[in-house]
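Backbone shape codes:
===
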Amino acid sequence: MRIYTVHIPAPRPGDDPAVADPLEDAAAVKEGFCWPAVLFSVFWALRHRMWGVALGLAALQAAAGGFAALAGIGGVTGAALGAGVCILVGGFANDVRRWSLARRGYRERGIILAPGAEAAVLRYMARRDPAPAGGV
């Protein structure tokens, strides 16, 4: 089981509350380290529609590689520098995703313990909309 924060988009002006389903676009973000962001940082950001973050990650990796080349760092030391950048990205990736969701108008609505992101959203929905008490 992992801890997730559930984010729901804020209602837009002019949306009909009877028709709009904010849970359809809900996002669950895992707490802690993000291995996919370590291994596929730019592609991870693109998958989550964080275009500016993807550009920033590509620039960060290019800057680290350029610094290593200009400083004459190669071999094991250069690889360690690259690995350090990747580990740093993995440590902050989920926090950056939460920040990106907040900038797009999402609001954090709950903290859920679940085995996966989809299960976290479903548990949030179940907690939010309890079944009516009593029988029919």
About this structure: The first helix runs from residue 35 to 39.
